[in-house]
Amino acid sequence: MPDDRELPEGDSPIFAERKLGQSPVPAPQLVSYIAPAAPATRRPAEGDEPPLRPEIGFTPAWYRQQLDIDFGEPFHTNPQYRREAVLAMRGLLRSRFPGTRIGRADLPDEPLDLLTGLFGACSVAAIYGVPIVYAADNWPNCEHRYISDEEVDRLEPPDLERNPHFQAIMDQVDRIAASEGPVTGYVNWQGVLNNAQRLRGQQLFLDLLDAPERAGHLFDCVCRTMIDAASRLHARQRETGFDVRFFTVSNCLVNMVSPRQYEELLLPLDQRIAETFGCLGIHNCAWSATPYLDAYARVPHVAYLDMGLDSDLARARELFPDARRALMYTPMDLTNKPMAEIEADLRRIASEYGPCDLVIADIDAGVPDERIRAVIDRCKRRDDYLCPADRIRLTRPQGARELREPKKGQP
After folding, report:
1. Where are the beta strands (DSSP E) in 309-378?
2. What is the DSSP letter of 50?
3. pLDDT tier at 28 (50, 70, 90 boundaries)?
4. Does this model's pTM top 0.85?
5. How far apart are CA 257 and CA 270, in angstroms?
6. What pLDDT score does 183 carry?
7. pLDDT (tens digit, 9 = 90+) per residue, 345-372?
8. Any bridge partners for residue 195, and if so which?
9. Could you give the 3-state DSSP secondary structure of residue 209?
10. What is the 3-state secondary structure (H, E, C) of 109-122?
């Protein structure tokens, strides 16, 4: 972004690295966001986040057990059907978890976010022609149809103006704009490694050893497509009054490559994405991010970073003091650990890693509501776990600035 871009007054989501004639200010923050029945993604922080903020999400199967919703192809291709389903899911959340912010059901029903969760995590692979496999009670998946050596070598980024899948997304955006006005929400473009694996399968990891140039070419094509698709979508959303100026990379498979391979082949692409959008979230699932933290610290404009409980949380806070951090707490731990052990985890998370989000995604049917409410309540009482010095240290960094979503009707 140009350094001399002036920030508008008020709560506009538009941001720049500095106001005209002023020194640089910290990057805005992102937080975890799980829309009803959608995979976890990120959204702009609002600036009033508690030191330990729970973000709770449920699988499509959890909703389908209680509502007559088919999460198959109609849910992802028919915005009107999806609108009715989202309203039903928001109503269910309000009745089961009153007084909470799960799924952002505490907010008004207009404009509805009908974009987040669209086609799950499959869109980039689908742009390259990989068929989507739908399920009535699950997120979409990609068919295991992988490209050959020769196809990788000839690969070029598709022309999105003529691409059937991307044009289907944009057609839905137009239809959502007609019903909602601002087209709120976020398509999950995934990360370079995740998308490349969906195109190449396990052969990708052999390429990294035997044909790194081939893997690098595939990574470059995928990266260019991610940037092109997101930029076009953001521009169209901006026309409707919803301004998106960040990107999230999902590095769910990063533990399948060595830190050296990440630094040589993938880090430059994450850096390219960060420079393009000026604000980046990095998602790692619930794995250990420790081997990659030093490389991530070389990515500019990081506004969000998550990882699993086995990570070096204190080191992550040291390297990313201004980013919103998040801990991916597994639904298995939520279900199987005694509450005393969960409380011990929360103490450690708050002390070593806070302020941060506690993300409990992919909760399936069978987890008692009381267990979920208990964890939310423990997060509210997080200050009970800390000494006075911790409370001072874990306040939000002075000067850190949030990237706000636009209010309804705000350009």
Report:
1. 324-328, 356-363
2. -
3. confident
4. yes
5. 15
6. 98
7. 999 999 999 999 999 999 999 999 999 9
8. none
9. helix
10. CCCCCCCCCCCCCC
